[in-house]
Amino acid sequence: MTALRILAITLISSVIVFGLVIFGIGVRNVWRAWASNRWPAVPGVVLESSTSSSVSRDSKTGVASTSYQAQITFGYRVNGRAYATDTIHFGQTTGSGDSSDMELRRLRYPQGSAVSVSYAPQDPSLGAVKPGIYPEVFWMLGAGLAFVLPAVAGLLFFLTSEMNLPGFAIGLSLFAMIFCMIGAVMLYWGSVRLWHAHASQRWPVTAGVIVFQKQDESTSAERREDGSLRKSTSYATDLVYQYDVGGTTHFANVRRFGQLAGASQDWADEIADRYPPGAKVKVAYDPSDPDLAVLEPGIISEAWWLPGAGAAFLLFGLAALKWGVPALS
User: Fold this and answer.
1) Domain boundary among 112, 130, 148
2) How, if at all, do strands 41-57 and 95-96 pair?
């Protein structure tokens, strides 16, 4: 075996190990989220509640991107000892390109407000304000698999490049599984959005007000064959609105279920003009979960894109497993 092959195998193996570490963290988070449903709870208080932003610049294209973070810390006491946690729920993201996501956290948990914190009996420093499994908790699992499966497939292709078909069949199977996994996730979340959009037409409606609005832009760039850059910019108007349900104040940032993340500047300006800060709005909310709300209920055409793309990925992966893999076996 040549030194080049050894180096390639070592690099691919390192990617597999890295992916397995991420996957392991994901498994741990899922376990904690599931177990937290049975943890005891104690009163707590919001110690810190603020937001910040950071700008990063791509060294190759020079394109800058802005991400937003929320710094939310909760304090609580167990058996007379003080603890602090920044976990709202397990699997939560630390930042977002959507400014309303982080502003929503700050508004829902203002400094000094009272909360309930569930903590692990064997380790009280491990606490969460919202116990249970939330969709984001599966992100680390998917990220780990995104490293492991392609790397394993690449390793099999590499090792069997001078052999015959079985290795290629296994490699194709792994690639097909990746497509199936991505498609299943997209199809699931797209279907959830469609269901919420459909159900929202029958939700009760309450009065609300726009409490936050910010226009953001996102620029992407790709280098042409002649070395020049082709840039494209999309624009968005991020919103947060406040509303009361049964005497309790709630906040949400969904304008439409399945809404576009960004489009033309005219599109973003039209939304900004329609929902200026302080504007009175009607809010449709889920009676079983009042934090889930929408300004424009019903199904829109954009809501079909995610489940449609998911179905295409899933069907391609299944077709490869049914007909492509057997042809190489």
Assistant:
1) 130
2) unpaired
Q: Decide: helix, strand or coil at residue 290.
A: strand
Structural domain tally of the chain? Answer: 2
For residue 217, pLDDT beyond 70: yes
Whether residue 49 sits in one domain with residue 32? no
Please list the residues that pair with 51 across neighbouring strands: 70
| Token code pair at residue 85 | 């946690």
Tell the residue number behind the tokens 């610049």, with chain if given: 57
Domain, as residue range, for 64: 40-130
- Is the residue at 230 inside a domain? no
Q: Mean pLDDT over residues 144-165, rounded?
A: 71
Q: What are phi and psi of 193, to 5 degrees?
A: -65, -40
User: 34 and 137 share a domain?
Assistant: yes
Which residue has tokens 């490699």? 171
- Cα separation of 293 and 283, whole Å? 7
Separation between Cα atoms, residue 167 and residue 63, nearest integer Å: 41
Under DSSP, is residue 198 helix (H, G, I), strand (E, B) or coil? helix
Of 251, 255, 235, which Cα lies nearest the Cα of 243? Answer: 251
> Does one domain contain both 121 and 138?
no
Q: State the pTM of this model.
A: 0.79
**Pairing outcome for strands 123-128 and 248-252:** unpaired
